[in-house]
Amino acid sequence: MSARPPSQPVGPFYSIGLCRRADDELVRDGVRLTGQLLDGDGVPIADGMVELWDPVVGRWGRSGTHPDGMFSFVVAKPPSRDGNAPHLLAYVFARGLLKHQLTRIYFPDEAEANAADPVLSSLDESDRARVVAERDDDGLRFDIHLQGDRETIFFTA
What does pTM read for this prediction? Predict the structure, then answer.
């Protein structure tokens, strides 16, 4: 009996999904959230995709990454719910990932709510900063590092 070959990722074929729905505006009048998708060496991932979900209202959007790994959305802060601080869910799709990755994006102006959030408070203090967006000139910034010293905190669904 011959051994089974290892599984191989196929694709990425994200352009197919982006052709169907490439809406990066979750709201019309909101704040611009930008970021960069980076591999373990800090190299931009040009062929990735990020989906953003508002878990309270159910809005979502999708952004393919540009050659410099950049993605961008227009978002509104969702309300707090069930003791959770306002946050967005981000699903990351990229080459070499056999399964998408899930992270949360918390808002930097919610210090009190963030401190009481059960998910954030379960993380080490140094890890909490890796799931809170930063303010920048254009709105908010949240870079996603797939590996390495600055690896984003990923959660199981």
Answer: 0.85
Residues 6+ apart with CB under 8 A from 133: 33, 105, 106, 107, 108, 140, 141, 142
Is residue 33 within 8 Å of residue 140, measured between CB atoms? yes
> Which residue, chain included where needed, has tokens 């540009």?
66
pLDDT digit string (tens) for 66-110?
999 999 999 999 999 999 999 999 999 988 787 899 999 999 999
pLDDT (tens digit per residue) in 40-53: 899 999 989 999 99
The residue among 131, 138, 133 whose CA lies nearest residue 152 is 131
What span, in angstroms and rounded, lies between the C-alpha atoms of 6 and 4?
6
Q: Are 4 and 44 in contact (CB under 8 A)?
A: no
